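Q: Structure tokens for this one, please.
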Amino acid sequence: EPMVMTTAALIGCGLFAKDVYAKLIHEHSDRLQLAICWSRSQEASTGFVSQHAPSAMAVHGEPGLQQIMDDPSIQLLIVVLPPEAALKVVRAGLACGKHVITEKPVAPTVKEAVEAMDWYRKTGVTTSPRWMFAENYR
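A: Here is the predicted structure, written as tokens:
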């Protein structure tokens, strides 16, 4: 039985994305299509794509992030951002019906993490879209 292909966007193209996620995405390319890579800067997103994901589109800045949120083909957001920036993207993605994988910690403070989890539970979307937390050991 063939694997179901999931179309994803990588949000954050920094060192951790290069060191950990590039390899993981490649290893799971039989079921994960990385369609878009986003970073705050054009240089970072195009650099990641050229080195690690030549079939993906590089986008950047707020317009690029909005493009991802508006794209119905993107089913999964892989959020590899610092905790200070990640929650905004997580909430936007879930609100758009996209599944989200994010790194720990999920927020800069325990209070903000608890508030985010409460918000997620109150939305009633704890089965779909799903918010998943990754723990990657190097």
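A few notes: The chain has five helices and six strands. The first strand starts at residue 6 and ends at 11.
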